[in-house]
Amino acid sequence: MSSARRVWILNLDAETELETRGSFTPSVALRRTVAAQQRQLIGTLLAPDDVLLTRENLQQHARKRDLEGLEGRAWCPTPSALGMLQSVGAIPGPTPPLATLRQINARPFALEVRRNLIGDSFDKYIARSADEVLQTLALSGPKNWLLRRSFGAAGRGRLKVAAGKPSTADLSWIEASLRSGPLTIEPWVEVVQEFTRSGWVSARGEVTLAPPCLQETDAAGAWVCSQAASPEVLPRTIDDRLQEAFEHAGRAIAKAGYHGAFGVDSYLHRTTSGQVALNVMSEINGRYTMDWAQTKITDPAHSRV
């Protein structure tokens, strides 16, 4: 295992950049949110000798030229992250093109991949217009729906809406969101247990997977913590389905031209009858994940994680 230092960009706002057309400048509020989340990855994803490159210390390192020639890594290799690494002379290595990052991280992509899996616990819908949203919300069944923008993370970009006709405020959110891309719509359910699985897909399409983790998020959907899943909590029958979904996702993103770290989120939820069912694929994330330190996985392209 190599002890070489790395330069990291923890651009936890990557989904916002992927949603943005043209140059990307994060808001002050978003930068504060990202800074708070970054602290949870120091000493886990980042090794003790690694360097965290931020917008705040970028110019300092560029002047000192003290990071030239070091290997560069990004949470997600977006244009702004790669630009920051290159400005200090760090070497990021091969990365997927921006169009691929946008394609596989968009929620409609995960929805289409999920459709090929057996045993969906509920249907998901894609809406590209306000009329399509209204038609879906009028369907019989759920009392509430979850609307999600094409891009979002840490609880951002989602809205709970009551079945039937949405409020004026809801309509404003829907119309504004559709300007950035399609919405995915699914029943609002009571989540019983969340799972996440991370791994790596090589440029040749080889999928390496780590053991599953339990994940906890807050009421808004933002990550709280992850821990390894024991057999007592995760029965083999469920684990087999999660593994199948993960490998299926890996093949799908490889076919789309992606290579690198990725993760798949899933969860158990209660149905309207009170039974517990498995949503085998909630999201696909083409990037590193908050549970990466729990995976104990070796990056096949490099000497250490």
SSE arrangement:
Elements: E1 6-9, H1 14-19, H2 28-38, E2 51-52, H3 58-64, E3 71-74, H4 79-87, H5 98-105, H6 107-114, E4 125-127, H7 130-137, E5 144-148, E6 158-162, H8 168-178, E7 183-187, E8 190-201, E9 207-209, E10 213-217, E11 223-228, H9 236-255, E12 260-270, E13 276-285, H10 292-295
Parallel strand pairs: 1-2, 1-3
Antiparallel strand pairs: 4-7, 5-6, 5-7, 8-9, 8-10, 8-12, 10-11, 12-13
Put the structure in a nutshell.
By secondary structure, this protein is of the alpha+beta class. It contains ten helices and 13 strands. The strands form three sheets. Strands 8, 9, 10, 11, 12 and 13 form a six-stranded antiparallel sheet that branches. Strands 4-7-5-6 form a four-stranded antiparallel sheet, sandwiched between helices. A three-stranded parallel sheet has the order 2-1-3, with helices on one face.
Tell me what you see in this structure.
With 305 residues, the chain is of the alpha+beta class. The chain is 30% helix and 25% strand. It folds into 3 domains: 6-95, no CATH class; 100-119 and 190-295, 2-Layer Sandwich (D-amino Acid Aminotransferase, Chain A, domain 1), CATH 3.30.470.20; 125-187, Dna Ligase, domain 1 (2-Layer Sandwich). The chain contains 10 helices and 13 strands. The strands form 3 sheets. Strands 8, 9, 10, 11, 12 and 13 form a 6-stranded antiparallel sheet that branches. The longest helix has 20 residues, at 236-255. It is globular. The model has no long low-confidence stretch (mean pLDDT 88).
